[in-house]
């Protein structure tokens, strides 16, 4: 019998839940189609509604558990792998490749900024999480989203090369590079390796895209999407490089978004009607 433990809230709403689980499985009793946690105590099993918050998950039994924000609204079961909301966290890392590999940021408040880490993301994806949803919000409070099926990373030996399949949503398919062939050739992120300022794997021969664009990413030469870029508090910005937080098919490359989050879950997940109803998109 699987042992599951739900501990009382400590600071914030951390819940320890680290037996081979991740957000989809916490919020993933598919027969109930409900975001719930099964509590197992002697002779009794029952369910409670699951809340948005930070959970300590353990997708691989041979690795240490780690903290992550589980978004149980928006259908439920989402593991948030990246979030930008206030510019407080430095994504232009000094110790670069290893920070992006292991993860960094703050894991406390519901809008705290972090990068979960390429190793953690890789482990979650290799466990079957493969739907990627990206939430976007501009400085007028308007929201858009993009969903990609078959989101996958290769391992570190291949520098976390990025793959993804079918797009749906209302933000435009910027990860594929934009609307015309020339843009796609130079800016599509499909098949690109991860680049940081100390490890250049991009297709820009004359330089390093991560240095110009202020954060690690799956750069081509260089990008149509730059979600780890510099946080501008204005929306439109000027500079020598288009290094803001960019989703080019919505606001172009000279507009930096106010809020973005990247989240993943299992592709067979059935949207939940519960969760705690909290709007996870911050603001
Ligand atoms: Ca280069």
Automatic annotation (TrEMBL):
Gene Ontology cellular-component terms listed: fibrinogen complex
Domain Fibrinogen C-terminal span(s) in chain numbering: 26-268
Pfam hit, one: Fibrinogen_C
Keywords in alphabetical order: Disulfide bond, Glycoprotein, Secreted
Keyword Disulfide bond recorded: yes
Cross-referenced InterPro entries: FIB_ANG-like, Fibrinogen-like_C, Fibrinogen_a/b/g_C_1, Fibrinogen_a/b/g_C_dom
Keyword Disulfide bond: yes
Source organism superkingdom: Eukaryota
Cellular compartments annotated: Secreted
Gene Ontology molecular function: any one: extracellular matrix structural constituent
Main location: secreted
GO BP of this protein: blood coagulation, common pathway; fibrinolysis; platelet aggregation; positive regulation of heterotypic cell-cell adhesion
Protein name, entry field: Fibrinogen C-terminal domain-containing protein
């Amino acid at each position: 019998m699987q042992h599951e433990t739900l501990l009382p809230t400590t600071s914030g709403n951390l819940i320890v839940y680290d037996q081979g689980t991740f957000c989809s499985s916490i919020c993933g009793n598919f027969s109930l189609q409900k975001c719930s946690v099964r509590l197992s105590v002697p002779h009794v099993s029952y369910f409670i509604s699951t809340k948005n918050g930070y959970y300590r998950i353990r997708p691989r039994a041979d690795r240490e558990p780690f903290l992550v924000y589980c978004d149980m609204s928006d259908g439920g079961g989402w593991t948030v792998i990246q979030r930008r909301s206030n510019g407080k966290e430095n994504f232009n890392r000094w110790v670069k490749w290893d920070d992006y590999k292991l993860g960094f940021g703050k894991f406390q408040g519901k809008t705290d900024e972090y990068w979960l880490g390429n190793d953690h993301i890789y482990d979650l994806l290799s466990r079957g999480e493969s739907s990627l949803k990206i939430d976007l919000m501009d400085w007028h409070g308007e929201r858009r989203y993009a969903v990609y099926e078959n989101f996958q990373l290769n391992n570190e030996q291949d520098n976390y090369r990025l793959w993804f399949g079918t797009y749906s949503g209302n933000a435009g398919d910027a990860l594929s590079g934009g609307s015309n062939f020339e843009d796609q050739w130079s800016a599509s992120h499909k098949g690109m390796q991860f680049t940081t300022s100390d490890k250049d794997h991009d297709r820009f021969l004359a330089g390093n895209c991560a240095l110009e664009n202020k954060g690690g990413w799956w750069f081509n030469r260089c990008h149509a999407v730059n979600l780890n870029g510099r946080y501008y508090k204005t929306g439109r910005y000027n500079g020598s490089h288009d290094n803001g937080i960019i989703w080019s098919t919505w606001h172009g490359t000279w507009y930096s978004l106010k809020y973005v989050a990247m989240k993943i879950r299992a592709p067979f997940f059935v949207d939940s009607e519960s969760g705690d109803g909290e709007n996870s998109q911050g603001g």
